[in-house]
Amino acid sequence: MKQIIQIDSSLRLVPYFLADHRDVALTWYQDVDLVELVDGVRSPYSVKKLNAMYSYLEKHGDLFWIEYREKGEWLPIGDVTLSLENIPIVIGNPTYQHQGLGCKVLRALIDLAQQKGWKQLKVQEIYTFNRISRRCFESLGFVESGSTEKGTSLLLNLDSYKI
């Protein structure tokens, strides 16, 4: 049974099935600037596309809501999935972007992957223009493992990784 992962006093990961934040998430995925960082295209999500994305992610990995504690309440600010083939992470609420929260989340997922006994983590593609995301992954030990049409793929070898 997946449990809430408490990262620090103000940041946690809540398993997708424990909360329904899709209404808030839809507002994130209406922001074409954010969608471009995620999908490489400037096209807002429909409810149908959002539900299809979450359905796929839930079947292919551990899907979490990223929640931030603000004035005593936990607010959904993004989503992330830990899978063997990819780690899509989105800080959807612009108020919380560019504060290092994505890196804290990624650190917690690396720890979770190690607990699961995984040997490596992969990132299928980070677009060339998404420098902030790439910098976060590289700061935690991910290295370039190949080129893609619009960016690069990254890899982290967990056998030699030290937290």
Please characterize this protein's 3D structure.
- This protein has helices spanning 22-28, 32-39, 47-60, 101-115, 131-139, and strands at 5-8, 11-15, 62-70, 73-82, 89-91, 120-127, 143-147, 151-157.
- It is α+β, with helices and mostly antiparallel strands and 163 residues long.
- The strands form 2 sheets. It has a 5-stranded antiparallel sheet with strand order 1-2-3-4-5, with helices on both faces. A 3-stranded antiparallel sheet has the order 6-8-7, with helices on one face.
- It is globular.
- The mean pLDDT is 95.
Order of H and E elements: EEHHHEEEHEHEE
End-to-end Cα distance: 25 Å
Largest sheet: 5 strands, antiparallel
- Count of helical regions: 5
Strand content: 25-35%
The helix-and-strand class reads alpha+beta
| Spatial order of the strands forming the largest sheet | 1-2-3-4-5
- The percentage helix is 25-40%
Secondary structure: number of strands:
8
Oligomer state equals single chain
> Over all CA atoms, what is the radius of gyration?
15 Å
Shape: globular
The average pLDDT score comes to 95
Low-confidence stretches: none
Layout of strands and helices, then pairs:
Elements: E1 5-8, E2 11-15, H1 22-28, H2 32-39, H3 47-60, E3 62-70, E4 73-82, E5 89-91, H4 101-115, E6 120-127, H5 131-139, E7 143-147, E8 151-157
Antiparallel strand pairs: 1-2, 2-3, 3-4, 4-5, 6-8, 7-8
Quick gist of this model?
This protein is an alpha+beta fold and 163 residues long. 33% of the residues lie in helices and 31% in strands.
